[in-house]
Design brief:
The complex is a heterodimer of chains A (296) and B (318). Chain A has 296 residues and is mainly α. The chains are: A mainly alpha (296), B mainly alpha (318). At the A-B interface, helix 2, helix 5, helix 6, helix 7 and helix 11 of A face helix 1, helix 5, helix 6, helix 7 and helix 8 of B.
Chain lengths: 296, 318
């Protein structure tokens, strides 16, 4: 019976593959479309519309961006800076708070857990937060507004704490009896054993920060401090933004700017790194998903 | 070592342990301080701005010196036509995203589970997770490339089938519930199916083997073994989803619609509305709406947690 089955053509499997290939095309083609538009000739776009493959191949959009890359470079520097600082600091702050919560002997565990849980359920809301951040903390138009507010998030702390709890408590206990301070236990024992969860949290933080557009939307007016994604949003929304970028410090007449393809070229230049990096880090992302699902 | 010496040693270490515990508690408390201070400044401090919802705010006077005006801001909002529109949109989208999202995620997980090729699972799953790594702005580019009235791909396709080629999608509010739902499901399917797929991988292999011996086909195995396995997670995620029914995905609604005013009847949610209050300088009403949203959300979460505590205590949040 089973031998017979093996000889049969696996129609079911073929059908499944077809379903998935079609589905995956709906994921890949949109990105191909963006790429294609960025390499399309402006006149061809006007005539034929957007196409999955460029009708007339043209790199002038990229050329024009690289001739006057001021805004792109500024946004890259800003984004890389705040992403790197946030990933590093948030791992320190989050794990530092998660470690005591993982210790069963810690007397203030309950109080701090409640303190954390409240932040998950209730906040100031957009307007009060905006007023406090700008009027009292003076974070408006500074790079710190990208970094500081999100450094400590209750969800991530719960995930890290759960991971710490998986490490046998006899380890920190015995180190303590040998006279190690808690800070040393945290730094020399807990952290080295926790690289998987730290990588996962670090990576999700990185993605979140790289894709951050709403912070700039609310708090940043200085174009030097625009994040990449916010710059992209401006390009998509404001037709003349891309024109301004291209014609700044140059003698180009406005009509010669390939506005449409430049928009998409910018999108590709801003999203490109993530598209390349993504397959390598994907497993951490997936792990984070399943780690987060197991709550202690 | 003799027995006497041993007990002595344990006695000493017990006392020592107590000292260590005391000192340890203080040390541990010190370690939590940086995080706690950050939360106090960046999360708790903004809560002191909430009174603005009950004030006639004057930027020159600041929140605390501005005169109170009771519930006027709330009244203004609840008597406006916006109140019903944005509440309805927020809740309706959340509900449809919640239920359709589960259906789609479970379907993808089941399909992946039935796929025999390990490489296939990996490749397809990786591709379907892609949009989760992309910012909403890039998704908005895709939507714009598809629905742009002049050059968009959708209009070209419609024209190819003999339809009109100049449909202005950004002035057709009736189309956007479908577009937004599709975009959301498309974006989440890969990621959300993982948790179900992982659960399916944990099913006892022998169940399927026994079913095979009994001559069960794929559908029967799916219906009688796989789906029952997923029901607890589905229930949990549904209940938890109700907790966030009042908070919409600001990025989806703000970016993919390009915040076009003509689309508001079907695309304006509480989050986009409060944001416009910020840019439009209408702080007080916006803060009132935000507070209304937080309070309803808070009540929902508390209720949901209470239910979860009854149904499966290990999954409750607190």
């Amino acid at each position: 019976m089973s031998i017979k089955k093996k000889k049969k053509i696996p129609y079911g499997q073929i059908l499944l593959h077809i379903i998935f290939i079609v589905t995956c095309l709906t994921y890949i083609l949109p990105f191909v479309l963006l790429l294609s538009i960025s390499f399309s000739n402006e006149d061809a776009i006007a005539q034929y519309g957007y196409t999955i493959f460029p009708k007339v191949f043209d790199t002038s959009a990229y050329k024009m961006i690289f001739e006057n890359p001021g805004q792109l470079i500024n946004s890259y520097i800003t984004t890389i800076t705040f992403t790197a600082i946030t990933v590093f600091l948030s791992l320190v702050f989050k794990s530092l708070l998660a470690y005591p919560l993982s210790r069963s002997t810690f007397r203030f565990k309950k109080a701090i857990t409640i303190f954390l849980t409240i932040t998950m359920m209730f906040g100031g809301g957009l307007i009060p937060t905006y007023i406090i951040y700008t009027k009292i903390l003076h974070l408006g138009n500074t790079i710190w507004v990208y970094i500081l507010p999100g450094l400590v998030s209750a969800w991530d702390i719960v995930i890290i704490r759960t991971f710490f709890q998986g490490i046998p408590e006899s380890l920190p206990e015995s180190a303590k009896i040998d006279g190690a301070s808690e800070l040393r236990i945290y730094f020399n024992i807990m952290l080295p054993l926790s690289t998987p969860v730290l990588a996962t949290i670090g990576f999700t933080t990185m993605i979140g920060k790289w894709n951050d557009w709403n912070t700039a939307l609310i708090y940043i007016r200085d174009s030097k401090l625009f994040s990449l994604q916010y710059m992209l949003q401006k390009i998509l929304r404001e037709v003349d933004f891309v024109e301004k970028m291209a014609t700044e410090n140059s003698q180009l007449a406005e009509y010669s700017v390939p506005k449409e393809s430049m928009r998409y070229a910018m999108a590709m230049l801003a999203a490109g790194p993530m598209l390349v990096v993504f397959p390598f880090f994907q497993k951490y992302f997936v792990k984070g998903m399943t780690v987060g699902a197991v709550k202690g | 070592m003799n027995i006497k010496g041993k007990t002595l040693a344990t006695n000493v270490s017990k006392k020592k342990k107590k000292d260590y515990a005391l000192r340890g508690n203080l040390e541990l408390l010190m370690l939590t301080l940086p995080g706690i201070i950050m939360l106090l400044i960046f999360h708790y401090l903004p809560m002191f701005g909430i009174p603005i919802a009950f004030k006639d705010y004057n930027p020159n006077l600041g929140i605390y010196k501005s005169p109170w005006n009771g519930f006027e801001n709330f009244e203004y909002f609840f008597t406006s036509s916006d109140a019903w529109r944005i509440t309805r949109n927020t809740v309706a989208y959340s509900m449809s995203f919640l239920f359709l999202g589960i259906v789609v995620a479970v379907t993808v997980a089941l399909l992946l589970f039935n796929l025999r090729s390990r490489i296939g699972v990996k490749v397809y799953n990786t591709i379907m997770i892609l949009p989760k790594f992309m910012s909403m702005v890039l998704i908005a580019y895709i939507v714009y490339a598809l629905f742009n009235p002049a050059a968009g791909l959708i209009n070209q396709i419609i024209a190819a089938f003999g339809g009109p080629s100049d449909i202005d999608w950004y002035s057709k509010p009736e189309a956007w519930p479908f577009i937004l739902t599709y975009v959301h499901l498309w974006q989440m399917a890969g990621m959300n199916s993982i948790i179900y797929y992982a659960s399916l991988m944990g099913v006892d292999e022998s169940l399927y083997e026994a079913a095979d011996l009994d001559g069960a086909n794929v559908w029967q195995k799916t219906w009688h073994i796989s789906i029952p396995q997923l029901i607890p997670i589905m229930t949990m995620l549904t209940i938890l989803g109700f907790g966030s029914i009042m908070s919409g995905d600001f990025g989806l609604f703000y970016q993919t619609t390009r915040d076009v005013g003509t689309l508001y009847p079907t695309t304006d949610i509480i989050n986009t509305y409060t944001f416009r209050g910020l840019t439009g300088g209408n702080y007080t009403v916006s803060a009132a709406v935000g507070l209304f949203q937080s309070i309803v959300g808070f009540v929902m979460v508390m209720t949901v947690n209470l239910i979860v505590k009854k149904v499966s205590p290990e999954n409750s949040m607190f």
